[in-house]
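Q: I'm writing a short explainer about Structural maintenance of chromosomes protein 3 for a general audience and would like to include a description of its predicted shape. Could you first generate the structure from this sequence?
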Amino acid sequence: NNSECEPAFHTWNRLFHHIADSDEVSTKILMEFNKRNLPGEATFLPLNRLDVRDRAYPETSDATPMMSTLRYNPRFDKAFKHVFGKTLVCHSIEVSTHLARAFTMDCVTLEDDQVSHQGALTGSYYDTRKKAEEPGELEVKLNENLCRNTERINNEIGQLMNQMQQTETQQRKFKASRDGILSEMKMLRENRQQSEKTFMPKQWSLQGLEADLHATESTRESLNAELGTDLLSQLSLEDQKRANALNDEIHQLIELEGIITRVETHLNEHLRKRLDQVEKKLNELRETEGGAVLKLEAINKTVKDTMARSEDLDNSINKTEAGIEELQKSMEHWKNMEKEHMDAINRMLLEKKEESFEKCQTLSLKQLFQKLEHHVNKKALDQFVNFSEQKEKLIKQQEELGRGYKSIMELMNVLELRKYEAIQFTFKQVSKNFGEVFQKLVTGGKATLAMKKDVEGSQSQDEGEGSGEGERGSVSQSSVPSVDQFTGIGIRLSGGQKSLVALALIFAIQKCDPAPFYLFEETDQALDAQHREAVSDVIVELAVHAQPELLESADKFYGVKFRNKVSHIDVITAEMAKDFVEDDTTHG
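A: Of course. Here's the predicted structure. Afterward I'll give you a sentence or two in plain language.
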């Protein structure tokens, strides 16, 4: 970019040299390149480090110094002399060969034939090495692009799957919250309907009582008016009873009016407000659910698009692999051709050697020395060395890939073995705990837990056996004819036996992998007194018919309610729990 020359001297080669004022500037630029991880190579020519001397050029019309054909800024004189100072532009290859040998300079013709002062000849700007390197480089580039695209698509699919899982989790939470609110709203509606059902008869009764109250007030006013007059005679006994009855009715009416007022106040201040809040929250959840559904549809669409892109990439990968296979076949073909050519060359060399030997026998010593002074193509040896190095690198890469594949297969086998050992170890622990717990639950009982595979070997099942109430039992794989032993398959177990076996299995798993919280309901329903005591020795039993003393040390209380043929569990206060226990103890 810093020089110009006549179009006749254009040889279509490029020099990627960067001119810098000093080596410090070059170092800073390289550090910035490395910091940004920029690809490629950069060659710098620091002006303060270049030592250029003036040269004597041949005075001939067949050659022109390269420096005389360039136009550049004199500021960069050192850099241009360093690069082009030892180069001559010649008219022919013969002149280039002569001048390169005589003046130890590099020569180039207008046809881009290059002659090095060391004796190497290069024709045209077409490099045959590139052709030999194209299949290998193309395969490496295709593999790199394939790995990058596959990794990018896998990352995108993983991110979309995570987003979809998060959306599904959020949708499940919204659905659970909506179901709870709907249940609560339904309960409030039922309470409101019950309140309205009881409110209307009370209102009608109130209206009747108010009418009676007005009549009584009229009677009272008339009686008060009579109080101001002189009584001609005393009230009779019947009138006194009637007056007392009227006073009682007046008190009852006043109490009923207070009750109705409190019911209306509670209905207006609490239940209606709560119903409005629940309806408002339900509407918000519906709106949120609609947004979540739209978002889920968008994610599903994105997943479908990604899967389609993945299929397209798979097709592209298959085409690329097919191309690679064709290139490999072509490479093998060319290798075979190369081998055949090498064999032919060796045969020709042997023949030429014999012919040369015969010719040399007829030549004099002076003629032989003249033959030795002729030029040789040193590039052929360099190309042979380069090809040999590339072959060794490819062989090493193949060996490394083979070792990597072998190590991956060994790792997969080790992981599979560890998984199988972990499953076997866990099952042995559960089986051992099952036998110990069963002996505690059933006095004198014996049980084992075994894994049995079916005929196809694709399914395994755990068989547990327990004793009946007051009887001894065992769990075994083998079929035992004794009537005191149960398998749970050939004959049916009773409810108590099933409960004992299930509890033993639960406690065995709990010992193997303890959990912070367990909730049992009606575990002793099918057990007799003896086995209830055995179960209570293993767990802290809270029976359904609890005593009030058990509530004193409790921190939290749960009440199970039965509404619309469905059980619901809610947190209740200590007073409600105590009232329930005392009422159940009294009327149970």
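A: For your explainer, you could say: The two ends are 105 Å apart (CA to CA).
Q: Perfect, that's easy to follow.
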